[in-house]
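Local shape tokens:
==================
===
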Amino acid sequence: MSALKEIASQLADQTSTPVLRVAVDGVDGVGKTTFADLLAEELQSAGREVIRASVDGFHNPRSIRYRLGRTPEGFYRDSYDYEGLKRSLLDPLCEGGSLSYRSAIFDHVTDSAVVTPDRQANVGSVLVFDGLFLHRPELRNYWHFSIYLDAPFEITVPRGAARGPGFGDPDPSAASNERYIGGNMIYFGEASPKSHATVVINYSELSRPTILAWKSRRR
């Protein structure tokens, strides 16, 4: 059984009231969105209703994101609106929440708020949420299950750049990548994501993810 199918199998019959909340974490370019989309498809095929969302819908405005300049510190501290994320998506899907949620509130490309209708989650559905820095202390307790996709910067930086123009320089040592690599290094030091993730996966090969560690594996 592949790592993806093994995780999906574990989650397919796992219940949490009212919504099972699953995080897919990892550095820029590692393949979080691809993995989360595939996981969502597997869960839907198993009969689970899935809410798909990403931290990319919860950026801060540019004035906040760059108030410390284009620095690693600014990237880690200021990229995302965590209070907005909690208020609009995570808290409503928690125990005692309204189940009325929004999957995005800000478009960082246009640097403007996103007007999206409130949606109503059904009890028993699964939130599959991907993004950077999801094991920060203020977020990690929201996840019933979390995945950390691991690969070296020598792989993730060119992988991310290969997405097309505007996705950065493929050379990890390029000055333009210092902000992103440095921000992730701060994250590693402060949040130790691999030690908090339910599952750590070697995602160096997109076609062959390999489970490196699994906490509290269910049999």
